[in-house]
Design goal:
The complex is a heterotrimer. Chain A is an alpha+beta fold. Helix content of chain A is 56%, strand content 15%. Chain A has a nine-stranded mixed β-sheet. The two termini of chain C are 41 Å apart. The chains are: A alpha+beta, B alpha/beta, C mainly alpha. At the A-B interface, α1, α10 and α11 of A face α2 of B.
């Protein structure tokens, strides 16, 4: 291994031929940062989502008919199943603001219910539940808050009830941004007020959630419930997690395929670039050959050059992607996963990268790169020594 | 000893532009420097490139110190060029974008690992031709004479036993030409074999004895 | 099926294999030319071009080999990643068994890496000689390797397109545990470990005595015995659970990806050693370099495996 002298010459040639490589480096960096950003974004959202979902109850029961309301019969039945704990009934519904179809998700909870109270305290250290219930108050997500403020509702909002009356509800707190992933357009209210706004009877609930400690019992519980009621829908946490897993994998795969198209173009550009042996380079390589460099030596030189170009582009591209996604929170790109119809998305992206992802990124770039430059490099390496005589 | 026996070289064989550059050349190089005289197109450059191992003949044998150069695979032929041949090109053929020092170390990189050792060898060669003060200057800024000295240093750096020169004095003024001839004389007295292809008449009246071969139309004239 | 094909890792794997196959196909075409027209004694320009072409062929094969080694590891990583989407699979073991092609793809991948390694050794010998003595041998060998890789490629497509995400597969505890039958050939752990030690010592001994054929055979035997030893014994110390027997779970991040190291050292070491022995037996080479590296890898593997057992014993005072 002629390492020291070879490296010296390699670095010498690389720096002297900067302009030759600058084009491929720039395009590489753009391509790599794009696909890396996508990967980083996707996995970060996925892991944040999974973390949030873990805190959710194991099961959620809702009604599958148009009339979404369940009465206490349902709650009693669920409570009677062995292994079921922490039953929590809620009222959900959509409230449409006046214009442009913007809506918010109304979540009616019983704040004294143990798990709800716990969750509220996790969100707001200093929450005073008594005070929350003393008057008509609600807790809103930051996007709802922004929306209301932009329509001149500063500390409260007046809901239009189905009965035709109006109800003014004050804003007690705004949800922290980290919940924006799944609570993007949410309004949390005490269950009675929610019932009023949504026009539901006193006893009615639209969702019943509960936990079942023993994993193995989950399918039993499900069949029991379906056996007891024909008009319900039972969703368990595992289903949600696999649903999101699949959706993310699907979206990611789709974009990867699109990326590959641009990759093919890139490969062709590379092939062309490194094939067009300018007369000066051809002469220089001919000189090397004439002075005793074998085909093997020149191949080593050319392939090492390309490898260094590829590696530097890769590292720079990945770093740029990291900064873009995790420091600037991926402006524009994140809408691929969230869609533009929700109220504006403000989330903090948590850095989540694993080695497998980096290897995948490395492969998707390096293998096409190498494939594109092998033949051009070989053509250059087999330049005859006689070229030097011309 | 260098033995050239019945060497033919044909270009573009089998096509319309088929051209036979060498038509059965034979001679032996022993101790005396060989001067190949002939006009351009006579085949002397082709002969040089065959001896130096740049290409292989279509027919015939070239044996350099018991090495059948005409039949070697690339790895060995390249090694032959790197270790046993020092070539001086007509137009110097330096890599313009790098310094004098870097040009001179090029032939040594496939042979030696240690860059510091290579640099000492390069300095030794540069001193010999009087160009070490220009070591870190970019080649494109050199004068004609300096470039030639750089080219010679490069040909000497590997301490090759065979020095081949193609029209070495064609682009030189009188002073540099005389310098060159002095160097050739020194090399000869060190025991190196020298082959020079030229049509410069100054080579007919040298201080030391040479063998002069006339080449015309791809054949050696008796 | 389509959801598997849209999985990023699968896309990347298949794309990479396709590119490598395309390059190897180019080598294949040139190799055919070489077989038909190679005549070292000819001075024809065509012959010189063939020599140039042979450099392209060998360059592509070297690069393809390095990439295929990466892809072998990546394949294992991919099937591990797929375990999230295949019902019932907790690690790669279940995914590999999702259809009949899985095992073949893995085995053929491993074999093609080994064959390529041998080809490269022969090639470096060939270009150092003065008249390319092994050109024909190399070329025919490459034809065989290429066909092998082509079949592997087709099988990998068949494998990925036939993974049924809804059909439940067995998890490793079923495949390798008591239900699956335990250690095969009627051996128990004690006998297995005895064989393990025996073959290891045999390798060292026959190397010292320079009996290369015995080294070769004992290395292969060692490979097979080690595979089972890792799955049924050493692995349980990595998982710290006597019932967890699985070659794939140790590749996951919970175990710090040590599986890649274990299998890499074992297969890499044995392959290098066998390759070195082939060169010594059939081509009479003298070089000891790759032999030393191979030995180093095998010894590291043994130390690593035993290390887990020792560490467990030191930490807990008992064995599993």
């Amino acid at each position: 291994m002629r390492s020291s002298s070879f490296l010296y010459f390699l670095t010498l040639m690389l720096f002297k031929q900067k302009s030759k490589h600058i084009g491929s480096i720039v395009i590489s960096i753009v391509l790599i940062s794009l696909i890396s950003s996508l990967f980083f974004l996707s996995s970060s959202i996925k892991s944040s989502l999974k973390d949030t979902i873990k805190e959710q109850p194991d099961f959620v029961v809702s009604k599958s008919t148009i009339d979404k309301v369940m009465d206490s019969e349902y709650i009693d039945k669920i409570a009677s199943i062995r292994g079921v704990e922490s039953i929590n009934a809620r009222v959900y519904g959509r409230y449409y603001f006046n214009n442009k179809g913007k809506s918010a998700l109304i979540v009616g909870i019983d704040p004294f219910e143990e798990s709800n109270a716990k969750y509220l305290r996790v969100l707001f250290n200093d929450i005073d539940i008594e005070k929350f219930l003393s008057k008509d108050y609600m807790i809103v997500s930051s996007s709802v808050d922004n929306y209301l403020k932009s329509h001149f509702f500063k500390d409260s909002y007046t809901f239009k009830l189905p009965s035709g009356d109006f109800k003014r509800v004050g804003i007690y707190r705004v949800l922290p941004t980290k919940t924006n992933l799944i609570a993007n357009d949410m309004i949390i209210l005490p269950i009675d007020i929610a019932r009023e706004i949504l026009g539901i009877d006193d006893d009615g609930v639209t969702s019943i959630s509960f936990d079942v400690a023993n994993d193995a019992e989950w399918s039993n519980v499900k069949s029991l419930l379906y056996g007891s009621f024909i008009d319900i829908n039972v969703v368990d946490k595992k289903e949600i997690i696999s649903y999101y897993d699949e959706m993310f994998a699907y979206k990611q795969g789709l974009f990867l395929l699109l990326y590959i198209i641009s990759l093919v173009t890139f490969m062709m550009i590379l092939y062309q670039r490194y094939s067009s042996v300018y007369s000066v380079e051809k002469r220089d390589i001919g000189i090397l050959r004439a002075l005793g460099w074998s085909i093997k030596d020149i191949l080593r030189l050319k392939l090492s050059e390309s490898f260094i170009v590829a590696m530097s582009s890769f590292i720079i591209g990945v770093v740029i992607a990291y900064i873009y996604v995790f420091i600037f929170d991926a402006p524009l790109l994140k809408y691929i996963f969230f869609g533009m119809d929700n109220l504006s998305v403000e989330i903090e992206l948590k850095p989540y990268i694993d080695i497998g992802m980096l290897v995948s990124l490395w492969l998707i770039y390096t293998i096409p790169f190498i494939s594109a430059i092998i033949i051009p490099s070989w053509r250059v390496a087999t330049t005859s020594a006689k070229e030097a005589m011309k | 000893m260098i033995e050239i026996s019945q060497v033919y070289k044909t270009y573009n064989m089998g096509t319309e532009s088929e051209f036979e550059a060498l038509k059965g050349v034979s001679f032996t190089v022993r101790d005396k420097p060989v001067i190949l005289k002939g006009v351009s197109g006579s085949g002397k450059s082709t002969l040089l490139s065959l001896i130096a191992g740049f290409e292989k003949p279509t027919k015939g044998k070239i044996i350099v110190d018991d090495l059948l150069v005409s039949k070697l695979p690339d790895l060995h032929l390249s090694n032959y060029r790197a270790t046993r041949v020092g070539f001086v090109f007509q137009h110097f053929n330096l890599i313009e974008s790098i310094t004098v020092l870097d040009n001179i170390i090029v032939p040594l990189i496939p042979i030696y690992k240690d860059i510091e050792y290579i640099k000492t060898l390069a300095y030794r060669a540069m001193k010999r031709v009087g160009i070490e003060h220009k070591a870190h200057q970019d080649t494109k800024d050199l004068s004609g004479g300096e470039k030639q000295r750089c080219a010679i240093a490069r040909a000497l750096v590997n301490d090759a036993s065979l020095i081949v020169c193609d029209e070495p004095t064609a682009n030189l003024d009188k002073k540099n030409r005389d310098n060159f001839i002095d160097i050739i004389g020194d090399l000869h007295s060190e025991g190196k074999r020298v082959i020079i292809a030229t049509h410069d008449p100054v080579f007919e009246n040298l201080d030391f004895e040479c063998e002069i071969l006339n080449i015309k139309d791809g054949r050696i004239e008796e | 099926m389509s959801s598997i094909l849209l999985n990023s890792e699968v896309i990347i794997y298949l794309l990479s294999q396709s590119l490598i196959l395309a390059l190897l196909a180019i080598s294949f075409i040139y190799t055919i030319s070489i077989i038909r027209k190679w005549d070292f004694d000819s001075f024809d320009t065509k012959q010189f071009k063939l020599e140039d072409m042979s450099y392209l062929v060998s360059t592509i094969i070297v690069i393809a080999l390095v990439l295929k080694i990466f892809l072998l590891f990546y394949f294992v990583h991919t099937i591990d990643a797929l375990s999230e989407f295949v019902a019932g699979a907790m690690c790669g073991a279940g995914v590999i068994k999702a259809n009949i092609y899985g095992n073949y793809v893995l085995v053929m991948g491993i074999v093609s890496v080994f064959l390529s390694l041998v080809w490269i050794s022969i090639n470096s010998l060939d270009i150092k000689a003065k008249n390319y003595p092994y050109m024909r041998l190399k070329s025919y060998l490459f034809i065989a390797i290429f066909l092998f890789i082509l079949i592997e490629y087709i099988l990998s497509w068949l494998y990925f397109t036939n993974i049924n995400t809804t059909q439940v597969v067995s998890c490793c505890s079923v495949i390798y545990g008591k239900v699956g039958g335990g250690v095969p050939f009627g051996l128990d752990n004690f006998k297995l470990l005895t064989l393990f030690a025996l073959f290891f010592i045999l390798i060292l001994l026959s190397l010292w005595l320079a009996n290369y054929v015995v080294v070769f055979i004992s290395a292969l035997a060692f490979l097979i015995v080690s595979y089972y030893s890792v799955v049924y014994f050493f692995g349980t110390y990595i998982y710290e659970l006597p019932t967890h027997k699985c070659p794939f779970c140790m590749l996951q991040h919970y175990y710090y990806y040590v599986g890649y190291l274990v299998w890499g050292l074992l297969f890499g070491g044995v392959f290098l050693l066998c390759d070195s022995m082939i060169m010594k037996i059939f081509f009479h080479t003298k070089s000891d370099k790759s032999q030393k590296i191979a030995l180093l890898m095998i010894v590291s593997f043994v130390i690593l495996s035993i290390g887990y057992v020792l560490v467990y014993y030191i930490k807990n005072g008992v064995l599993l």
